[in-house]
Specification:
18 helices; globular; alpha+beta
Length: 483
């Protein structure tokens, strides 16, 4: 069977507005039952009228999609084979050559073919629960424009952070010129305060990056998490390491009291213990635990619906993108300043060890089942980890320049070699040099095991929901995109 993806972006926006009004209606009814009056901003009759209006608009939009399906086709189709053997045979016939795979890697597109003068991209289909159906109809040009806008916004935010840290460093320098005995203590405390300012700015960046990544309208949850992790790792590294270095460069405070060395030492120590501690003291989990205790204490007097009870008593979300970004930022920061402060390597090892055990505890004891994301996320994060070598060689060049006033030739050659290594398509080269022997697929028909799956592409297109699945669909193997 073939599942054609329709453009449901407008309908999903209407559904979001209707659900938001439904929540306001629930709060208004509860307020009227418990307090005897409506909420001032949300009178019950107005909320119900708006809910009915949005429900009618959703019906009209659905009728348009059904009456004119060709006008709402997004150019994406999901094909499901009857057996895994058919899937492997198809991909074996469409497998591109090594030269074409290299070109594919540089053009960042999957294998392509043509049909009726249209370029068709054939790639392995994501899981139904991984697809963001309402974003399938967004054009590539709009996505590129949104990504460019998000990068521009992040650049402006980094400039703003530079101004804040620069002005704060000037204030610290003004205290170092004083001869009073308390000046040294004040400079030390302000240097620690600068560290916490950087950490606070990183937390603010997390909120901004999350909003910007969502505004880029990715097709899958995996792509969204990749964008979030990449941007957050790079931006926090820039704010923690590069902007701190630029401030020290412009104020000439590399070795002075309250300068670069003291600041990055404080950052290494703080980064080793504070982020895991903040994860353990998660505000969302604490509030949800207090709400659970309050509901349990009411007993039979509690008036929650089943949906409300599920939202309260289920675990919190495990933000895998933020965890990846935190680890990558630590690796980049450590590698960049390893030549200046070798003790930072030891502190970062402690930080990563504590982070591992804290995340393991949170994942097993506090979180609900993580979303079913593609292996592409781990592959992209592994590729991002290769930037650690660039950070280390770049930091070594900076150390030579700060210490000796010039770049040493060996450091420059090593940095150039690191750039070449990072640009090479390592995955494609490894597949050619070390080919994997795939096991023969099971000869089981999709119709025999379909009932074991909690959803498939047809059901996801109909409901456009987010069901939880325990089994993966290995039969739905590729999607077609019209260029």
């Amino acid at each position: 069977p073939v599942s054609w993806a329709r453009d449901v972006y407008k309908r999903q926006k209407l559904k979001f507005e209707r659900d938001w009004l439904g929540e306001r209606r629930r709060l208004t009814i509860r307020s009227k039952r418990e307090r005897g009056y409506d909420l001032p901003k949300y009178p019950l009759h107005e909320v119900e009228e708006r809910i009915e209006m949005y429900a009618n608009l959703m019906k009209e939009e659905l009728e348009k999609v059904r009456s004119r399906p060709a006008n709402y086709f997004t150019g994406v189709a999901f094909v499901t084979f009857s057996t895994p053997q058919q899937m492997y045979s198809f991909f074996e016939k469409c497998r591109p050559s090594f030269t074409k795979r290299l070109m594919t890697w540089f053009t960042l597109e999957a294998g392509t073919t043509s049909y009726r003068d249209h370029q068709i991209i054939i790639e392995r289909a994501p899981e139904p629960t991984d697809i963001i159906w309402e974003n399938q109809g967004i054009s590539d040009s709009e996505r590129l424009a949104r990504r460019a806008a998000s990068l521009a916004v992040l650049g402006l935010l980094l400039c703003f952070c530079y101004v804040i840290l620069y002005e704060f460093q000037l204030y610290i320098d003004s205290l170092t010129e004083l001869a009073e005995s308390w000046a040294d203590w004040a400079v030390t405390l302000l240097s620690i305060a600068a560290t916490f300012i950087v950490l606070a700015l990183n937390r603010a960046f997390e909120t901004a990056v999350r909003f910007l990544a969502a505004s880029e309208l990715w097709r899958t949850q995996t792509k969204l998490n990749i964008s979030l992790a990449q941007k957050l790792a790079v931006v926090t590294f820039f704010n923690t390491a590069l902007i701190t270095f630029l401030v020290a460069l412009t104020t000439d405070t590399f070795w002075s009291n309250g300068g670069l060395i003291q600041t990055i030492t404080n950052m290494f120590i703080t980064n080793a213990f504070l982020p895991p501690l903040l994860e353990l003291c998660d505000i969302q989990f604490i509030f949800k635990s207090l709400r659970r205790w309050r509901i349990i204490s009411k007993g039979e007097r509690s008036s929650l619906t089943q949906r409300e009870a599920n939202s309260v008593f289920e675990g919190i979300d495990f933000d895998v993108a933020r965890r990846y970004a935190e680890v990558l930022k630590t690796m980049y920061f450590t590698a960049f300043y390893a030549s200046i402060l070798p003790m930072g390597i030891f502190l970062s090892v402690i930080s990563l060890s504590i982070t591992y055990w804290v995340d393991k505890y949170i994942l097993l004891r506090r979180c609900r089942m993580p979303p079913n994301l593609s292996q592409e996320l781990s592959r992209e994060m592994t590729k991002m980890l290769e930037l650690t070598l660039l950070a280390y060689t770049g930091g070594s060049m900076v150390t030579d320049w700060v210490t000796f006033g010039q770049f040493e030739q060996p450091s420059g050659l090593i940095f150039l070699a690191a750039c070449i290594i990072w640009c090479l398509p390592a995955t494609a080269i490894n597949e050619v040099i070390f080919p994997l022997k795939e096991e023969p697929p099971d000869d089981i028909r999709y119709s025999e095991v379909r009932n074991f799956f909690e959803t498939d592409y047809d059901l996801s297109l109909i409901h456009i929901s987010e069901p939880t699945r325990l089994l993966s669909i290995s039969y739905a193997v590729f999607c077609l995109k019209k260029k």
